[in-house]
Design goal:
heterodimer, A: 317 residues, Ubiquitin-like (UB roll), Fumarate Reductase Iron-sulfur Protein, Chain B, domain 2, 3 domains, 16 helices, B: alpha/beta, Rossmann fold, 4-stranded parallel sheet, 15 helices, 10% strand
Amino acid sequence: MPTTTFDIFRYQPDVSDEAYRQDFTLEHDPELTLLDAILDLQNEQDGTLAIRYSCRSAICGSCACKANGKTVLACMSQVEDVKKEFGTERISVDPLGIFRPLKDLIVDLDPFWEKFKSVKPFLIPDGPPPADGRERIVSKEAMQKVYNESKCILCAACYSECNSYMADPEFVGPAAFAWGYRFAGDERDGQRKERAKLYSGDHGIWDCTRCMYCNERCPKGVNPRDAIEKLGGVAFAEGVTRDKGARHAKAFLISMRTGGKLNESLLVPYTDPIKAHLDLPFALQMLRKGKAPSPIPHRIKKLKEVQSLMKNVKETI
Amino acid sequence: MARAFAYYPGCVAEFSSKELNATTKALAPMLDIELLPMPAATCCGAGDIAEAKPNLYLTLNVRILSQAEEMGVDVLTICNVCTLNLRRANKMVKEDPRLLETVNEELVKAGARPYEGTKEVTHLLWYLATEEGLSLLEQKGPRGLNGLRVAPYYGCQLLRPSSVMGFEDPDQPQSLERLIVALGGEVADYEAKSKCCGFPIILAREAVALKESHLALSQSRDAGADCMVTPCPLCHLAMDAYQRKAEAANATEYNMPVLHLPQLIGLALGLDTKVMDFRRHMVPADRVLEIVGV
């Protein structure tokens, strides 16, 4: 039987305002999950040790926490696997990042639920139900488009290390936008354009910094960053492109059509024309260092192929 | 014998960060690498075209891969973002023959060569951070970095998503560390080495981006680094060109020179500093050159 030391974040506000760390040692079955280890510690060593959990089967999404700094579902991680992955005999266990701890490994998820609700995570059908009073039929192929997003169990693991959320707690964030695409990509939904508008603007889809932590951490393969990217595609398809982030992407498309390579001289003035004028000192510094872009765009060989693709490739988002 | 690659420097290295392109080209023969130009290759779209027009993104990137296939060689990159975009497109079509067929139909209609799905995309860091690559660096007899304390900065997209990148554990990367040590430097370790530099949103959401770069800049400073090194020119722009802005936004000072990966190798191998052109950096690299002794 292996033995493992768990170095656990403790916070018991009933007793003290100070958080601390506590070591627990457990002899255990080699296939024990991290959640079962914590529950064993709770049952056998310290009844006050708190974690939120329910199904123990990676379905309810309650027990997300950090093991050796990496966000995981405790019920989906085996103790011996974690030790092997990090080459350690000890495992540090911490609550989800970003959210405020309430007690030990339990965090305040109210902000997460607020973000979730803000994207209208439900179907808003177009028009009245079919005349025969039956359900709205959707093909298997059409549902395939939103299959990944449908797998989200709202465990909040994708927020725990989200770099944009760390910098801006108002960022709507990965899981919420995965649900946004779950419905924006559903052919029965009648609010694609309204959704594109709702999800653009400050703290919206164009605030995602593409750090890819959400894709890396999601225990269910939802790939929230991909969903955010698809919402960008929805915004373009619906003509909702006034956000600076969308304008930034437009500058890439114009560059592609006119030269095949990024025309850096377009990027700043096109993304944010007002700032392009106000930020003159910075522009001059860049100029002095030879970093000011040439106004004459580069032109690749066989540009016609690219222009033809830009004209003919159809989007299916 | 030299290993030949289809060289895909990416737009930033070709334009605003020319010093990276020049250094890589000068370094390649010293490392037995032959860089074959790709005059008809487009921009990878940097994630922006994928966000606006996903099918177009895929087709454009497969077109680039097909050009390398026609040349009979794999692609070598020097940018995190290019690496991810090209590898992602490659994975998508390699795993889905029907998708490859659809993309190829578009390519043929546009007069471009279809792709057979036979090529790989690798970053210079990955090529050099293997046993083979590291022993090559040692063979070349590096003059060494003279104990320069270097903070490795990976950024995001060379590590994540690991299902597409897959060279190393994204939570415990070691390639830059191994390279720094092989070149005679010391590693200044810090937690934020694989956090985001903020560059993808620096024009649209500058305030958010500058909070992001603060993490790595402040932690590398606190770890006593003489400089940072990065495998990505976009990270370089965020960390170097925007460093004074980040200082103002976060009310602190970093004074952290940031080197492109090939510049660090070039310093150790005795490459002419004029070629590496540190004068193009916003934060002077004087203290780095002083320690290395050039």
